[in-house]
Amino acid sequence: MKHIVRHGWRYTSLQYLSGFTLPELITTMAIVSIVTTTAIPGMQGIVQNNRLATQVNTLVTNLHLARSEAVKRHQRITLCQSPDGVSCGTSNHWNEGWIMFTDPNHDHVLDPDETLIRVQQQMGGNTTIKLRRGGRNSNHYMFYEPTGFTNTNGRFTFCDKTEYAKKRGIIYYRTGRPRLSYKGTSRKPLECT
What we know:
By secondary structure, this protein is α+β, with helices and mostly antiparallel strands. The chain has a single domain (46-187), classed as minor pseudopilin epsh fold, CATH 3.55.40. Helix content is 27%, strand content 28%. A four-stranded antiparallel beta sheet has the order 5-4-3-7, with helices on one face. A four-stranded antiparallel beta sheet has the order 6-8-9-10, with helices on one face.
């Protein structure tokens, strides 16, 4: 569409457009759809890796706290899997949450006279967290002695059900210090079972 515009004493013909032409719009939409379909799976991987890293860091922080509380209070401190945040569960699904408490009678059960130190609610996302303690079947709890040591080696394994994120493990030794690992025993890959 042409318009005549007056600039001072002379008249000029200007042609201007409003909006996009159909080919420009189709090309732009095609580029946007290609970028979106290639970027979204990559973003899901980044989001899931960050979520998994946060969950690992949360558990490592709780392990350090339990160890320091055991030394400070001169009492056994137990961490146990707990879906309700009130009592210990019997499953090995640590992603459902856990509790930390003083356990002077060594029964791995939160009794009314024992002190609840921390409650961790259920972890969100598609992560499963499992504990394996030195070949024992009691994988729903672990504890620290007043020395800061544990009675056995153990490993928490973090697995993403969607396989976007890399598997991670937290290994702790009898000395009680946790460390992050991407490998299982004998340097083999971590297994999610």
